[in-house]
């Protein structure tokens, strides 16, 4: 589906955005019949409040949308998105009241109210159409919306239709749209090309495990995005209990996030060299599953003792990161639904991240509010390094005790990035547990918009 601004400004109705408490002042400049109608309606300008103002013939002539106050807006990600579904069947042009610095974010939120996942049942969202507010980069906002649609659709599609092969197909589709190049190493090829941990995790599934490698652009700084593509995570032989397995179609949320980000980078034609690496596997159960206490050899040469087959994400990412690191790009970013511990730490809304350097971290933090994409830095805490060292191998994939699970997972990944000066890792949730304005229940992008907004500063674009 495509989320776009309305093109014809003629026929669009004026929409006045009013803060809570600003209604009386606005009414003092309005004709008596408008003031009477608004007063009688009880419209107060709260978030989500809307009012259509009729003309003499009873048809709509204009509308009001509440903008709340600063404290109320701080509790929501997108404000006008709460109003848009109540303004359906009309096209609106924002005539007053929307602060310029909020316009791009609010316009994106509005567009996203049009998202519905209709692959299996029509869930077309009913919402108002919006003419792009003045002063915004409308193309950029539409690109951000398209990237988010891709991410959500990929996550929402169940594993039966979004296994490793289908995920590969989705990458080919994206690459075709933007003239990118794709190479795939699958099945036995993973062993031939020294990607043994991707093979070990994925070999028990019906679809062959694979590494999907997409490249685009030929000038500028070199950026590598690595996304966890575990299309379904049963936990492997350390099988997850039912309640924990229930949502695991979303365990390719990191892949979905980096593909959305890649789509935006390519559509915006950023001047950089992009590589996207997705280890795509299903962590499944069969006679050839990898086992607890197996010791895996990794691409980088480090050996890994398996102490829980459910800590599979770091294994597939490790081989992909080692491959990325061999060319020492300017920046490597990994995104993954990697640990339950990250959820316990920050809940579903916030994308925690780890960064090897402070300037990198500050760039993401500075970009997040404007991008409506909250992030929070967690530390690569060196004193915890011993926790990932088991004794009979170089690394332990599942430290005992479970303290600092998001940090120990991140430290594990960092062991595979030694040649690249700057590395950041995002441990995302990829799922909106309850619908909120602009955010349908289900798959959701996290981190990508903040990263995109920070890239010019980080890579000097
Ligand atoms: N995909 C899960 C992590 C996950 C679970 C993310 C729930 C979001 C919601 C990952 O593969 C996993 O199972 N991690 C284990 C690691 C542990 C066994 C060391 C975890 O976090 O419990
Ligand atoms: Mn797992
Ligand atoms: Zn997983």
Features:
461 residues; alpha/beta; Leucine Aminopeptidase, subunit E, domain 1; Aminopeptidase; 2 domains; 9-stranded mixed sheet; 5-stranded mixed sheet; elongated; binds ligand BES; binds zinc ion
What is the CATH topology assignment of the largest domain? Aminopeptidase
State mean pLDDT (0 to 100 scale): 97
N- and C-termini, Cα separation: 30 Å
How much beta, percentage-wise?
Answer: 15-25%
- Small molecules bound in the structure, each named once: ligand BES, manganese (II) ion, zinc ion
The structural domain count equals 2
Describe the protein's architecture and organization.
With 461 residues, the chain is α/β, with parallel strands linked by helices. It has 2 domains: 13-136, Leucine Aminopeptidase, subunit E, domain 1; 143-458, Aminopeptidase. The protein is built from 15 helices and 19 strands. The protein has helices at 23-27, 32-41, 70-73, 103-112, 138-156, 164-178, 188-192, 196-202, 242-245, 253-267, 313-325, 340-346, 358-371, 405-414, 448-459, and strands at 13-18, 50-54, 60-66, 91-96, 129-130, 181-186, 210-216, 222-227, 229-233, 273-283, 295-297, 303-305, 331-336, 351-355, 375-377, 395-396, 423-427, 431-432, 442-443. The strands form 4 sheets. Strands 6, 7, 8, 9, 10, 13, 14, 15 and 17 form a 9-stranded mixed sheet that branches. A 5-stranded mixed sheet has the order 2-3-1-4-5, sandwiched between helices. The protein has a 3-stranded mixed sheet with strand order 11-12-16. Strand 14, helix 13 and strand 15 (375-377) form a beta-alpha-beta unit. It is elongated and about 85 Å long. The mean pLDDT is 97. It binds ligand BES, manganese (II) ion and zinc ion.
